[in-house]
Structure formats: C-alpha cells, structure tokens
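Hmm, how's this folded?
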Amino acid sequence: MKKETTEVVCVAEFWAKEGKTDALIAAMHPLMQPTHKEPGCIRYELNQRVDDPRWITYVEKWKDKKTFDEHCAMPYITHFFNDVQPGLVEKFEVKLYQELLP
C-alpha cells in the first residue's frame, strides 16, 4: 500500500547569463544558511550541472507546502528573485514535486 506524504520537493533551476555563472553562485550561497534555519526545511542544497555548468539548481525538501510558501515569502528570497536574479539569470524554472514512497 502506498504511503501518503505531505512533504514537498522543489527543484529550482537557474541558467546563468553568459559569463555570470560565478556571480550567480556567489549570490545563491548566502541564501543557504538562513534557509537551513527555517522551520520545515529538510533539505536545501545547491548543485551545478555537469554537462552545462551554467545551470545552477537548488534541490529542496520541505515539511509541507505551507513551510515552502513561507520560505518563498522570506525577505532574502524575494530580494533574490526581484532584484538579484534578473541581472544574472537568462531563464529559470521552479518545479514542485511530491515524493512518492513505496
């Protein structure tokens, strides 16, 4: 029987503008420490794609959708999306998943 879960998995992929990869990583690293302290944060890691280093991706897991939504409203997250990201990122996609447990 399938177990129900309310945990939310987020994959947030950012494709850096040409020549902006290092600046993007430098802008994303400071988001990690305060996020790790948020209630409901289970995993929040930053990854770089092996085959295309311009893709920088957060892989996140949250206790539930409510804690994820609260994370998205944090001032450091809204500042990143509104003020920082537009100058460094050519395109991005934030996808939400629900983990499927056997």
Notes: The radius of gyration is 14 Å. Strands lie at 8-16, 41-48, 55-62, 89-98.
